[in-house]
Every structure is written in C-alpha cells, then in structure tokens.
Design goal:
CATH architecture of the largest domain: Orthogonal Bundle
Strand content: under 5%
Number of helices: 8
Number of strands: 0
Order of helices and strands: HHHHHHHH
C-alpha cells in the first residue's frame, strides 16, 4: 500500500527531462542541465554521505567533492545505464575516502553536535550523550545499504520508490532494509532503557 506523499522534494523528474537526458546534455557542455542535476540530487547525496560522516561540515564538503568528481568523470558515464546509481557510487567513494582519512587521524567519527545557548544539567547532558552514542553506534553497525536506506527514507523523508531509484534497488528491498534498521535501533534503545531500569535505585 503506497505511503503518504513525501514532505521533501522528490528525486523523480518533474520537468519532463530524465536524469540520463540531462547527463547527455552535460556531456555536451550544457551548464543549465548540470544545474538541474545538482538541484535534483543535492539533498539525496547529502543523505548518502551522512550515512558515513557525522560532521555536517564534512558532509557539505564531501557533497561538493562528489559533484566535482561527477563533472570530471561525466565523459565516462554511459547514458544507457541509470544515472542515480552512478552518482550514488561516486558519493560513496568520496565518503569512504574521507572516513578512512578520519580514522587514520584518530578522530572521533561521532562527535557531539553543537551546543545550544541554554544547556541542560550535567545528568541530562550525560544521558543525552549516552543515547546519542548508542544510536550512532547502532547505525554504524548496520550494513552499508541498510544504513543508507534508513538515512534516505526515515531521516530525510524520501519515499521507498525514490530511495530505491537513488540506490539502484527495488522498493521492496529498500523497505526491507528500513524495517531491519528500525528493529536494530529499537533493540539498541530497549537495551539502554533496560540497563537504566536495572541499575536505577
């Protein structure tokens, strides 16, 4: 049964030109076609990269790098194949490169996000930090495609059909990935709450 209409822009072409048609135009030097592709895929590419990188600045830089690499390599793209998985693979490669660099530099892959002006008490901060680490660790343990499907579908609000198109999978496979990702996160949170209840006085 189809779900509700997405709250975010769909990646499905709405201007009468397919991704592949626009990619062919980009190969001929059409800058307007390039601009359309960037607008169409900027948000989903951010979501794909966010499956690997935690820092927002890293995600922004990696997204920019993805499009630069795509422009450099557009000549090797064959329009007989779907464009979205081709671009998605470039994004994955960029994110992996940056993640390997972070690991090599021994940087924390899941730093705390920015702190607001009004900060909670130490106990609340510690609890939130623990839950954030727990959820982040649970997401990191997910298989790569399951993690990305979860980010695109549940975090960014894309439909199963749009997520499938971006990832080059079937909608049924995307739904399965999202289902298992949700179960893993629920189990992680249930474990945390259970530990807290057992340890509480």
């Amino acid at each position: 049964m189809p779900g509700p209409a997405p709250r975010t822009p769909r990646t499905t072409p709405t201007d009468g030109r397919s991704d592949e048609d626009l990619a062919r135009a980009v190969q001929r030097g059409d800058r307007e076609a390039l601009d359309r592709l960037v607008r169409r895929y900027l948000r989903p590419i951010h979501a794909v990269i966010a499956s690997y990188l935690a820092e927002r600045a890293d995600v922004e830089d990696a997204a920019q790098d993805t499009f630069l690499r795509a422009i450099d390599g557009i000549g090797s793209y064959r329009a007989s194949r779907p464009f979205a998985p081709w671009l998605y693979q470039i994004a994955r490669n960029v994110a992996r490169d940056r993640l390997r660099a972070r690991v090599a530099a021994r940087l924390d892959p899941l730093p705390a996000s920015g702190v607001g002006a009004a900060t909670p008490g130490p106990d609340v901060q510690a609890e939130r930090a623990e839950i954030r680490r727990l959820v982040g660790a649970a997401i990191d343990r997910l298989p790569e495609q399951r993690r990305t499907a979860f980010r695109l579908h549940d975090v960014n609000g894309y439909t199963a059909e749009d997520t499938a198109r971006i990832m080059g999978l079937s909608p049924g496979t995307v739904r399965s990935h999202v289902h298992h990702a949700r179960r893993a996160l629920r189990a992680a949170l249930a474990s945390r709450l259970g530990d807290a209840a057992d340890g509480g006085g």
